Structures are given as structure tokens and as C-alpha cells.
UniProtKB/TrEMBL annotation:
Species: Triticum turgidum subsp. durum
Biological classification of the source: Eukaryota, Viridiplantae, Streptophyta, Embryophyta, Tracheophyta
Protein name, as recorded: Uncharacterized protein
Molecular function in Gene Ontology: helicase activity; RNA binding
TM helices/strands, residue ranges: none
Family annotation (Pfam families): HA2_C
Signal sequence range: 1-19
KW Signal (keyword) present: yes
Signal keyword on record: yes
PANTHER family linked to this entry: ATP-DEPENDENT RNA HELICASE (PTHR18934), DEXH-BOX ATP-DEPENDENT RNA HELICASE DEXH4, CHLOROPLASTIC-RELATED (PTHR18934:SF246)
Length: 106
């Protein structure tokens, strides 16, 4: 958790992740689309970390992804509205409902 704080330089994403972890993963994993889900996750991660992802193992990167996904989602929601935010969730296999729940919590 402290590591994420150092990476992102602020506390609120940490609280969001804590909320995710205590509540429910925002990721939707349809069985028949496992590969696409992995691709979407990798795309999210690489876009933000410029390929330096090899130092992050899978379990950690899921937590990191929650922060990245949440930050993106909330920015899109603010700047482009609910429709765009929902579209973002669809393309990255995120559960829109869970995103809104986390938002209310934090
Ligand atoms: C999204 O999360 C909500 C609340 O936990 C749950 O009821 C719903 O089934 C989830 N949707 C999907 C597609 O996983």
C-alpha cells in the first residue's frame, strides 16, 4: 500500500483500492474471454507504465490496475460524462456498478 502511495503521490487512490479489496473486485472475468480480459488489463497497465511492468507480479498488478482503472474511470466520468465512463468499463471489462460504489465510499 505504501508503495502505491509513493507511485501516485497521493492518498486517495490508496483508499479506493482498500475499498475495492474489502468490497469486491471491479474486474469482470467472463470465462470464454479470459484472453481478452488479460489483453485489456495489459493495455491499461502498459499505457501507464511504459513497459516497466515486468517488475510487478500478477497479484500486485491487479491492485495497481484497480488504481489505474479507477483513476481513469473517474476522470472520464468527470470530463466526458456517464456514457463515456460506461463505455470505458465495457472495453476494459470493469464492473461499472462496482466503480460507482467505490466512488460513493471514498
Ligand atoms: C457488478 O457488481 C454488482 C455489485 O456487486 C453485481 O451485482 C453484478 O452482478 C456485477 N456485474 C457483473 C457483470 O459482474
Amino acid at each position: 500500500m505504501m508503495l502505491y502511495g509513493a507511485i501516485f503521490g497521493c492518498l486517495s487512490p490508496i483508499l479506493s483500492v482498500a475499498a475495492f479489496l474489502s468490497y469486491k473486485s471491479p474486474f469482470i472475468s467472463p470465462k470464454d474471454e479470459k484472453q481478452n480480459v488479460e489483453k485489456a488489463k495489459a493495455a491499461l497497465l502498459n499505457e501507464n507504465l511504459d513497459g516497466s511492468t515486468s517488475i510487478i507480479d500478477n497479484k500486485q498488478s491487479d491492485h495497481l490496475l484497480m488504481v489505474i482503472a479507477y483513476n481513469k474511470w473517474s476522470r472520464i466520468l468527470q470530463e466526458h460524462g456517464a456514457r463515456s465512463a460506461h463505455q470505458f468499463c465495457r472495453s476494459f471489462y470493469l464492473n461499472s456498478t462496482v466503480m460507482y460504489m467505490i466512488r460513493l465510499d471514498s
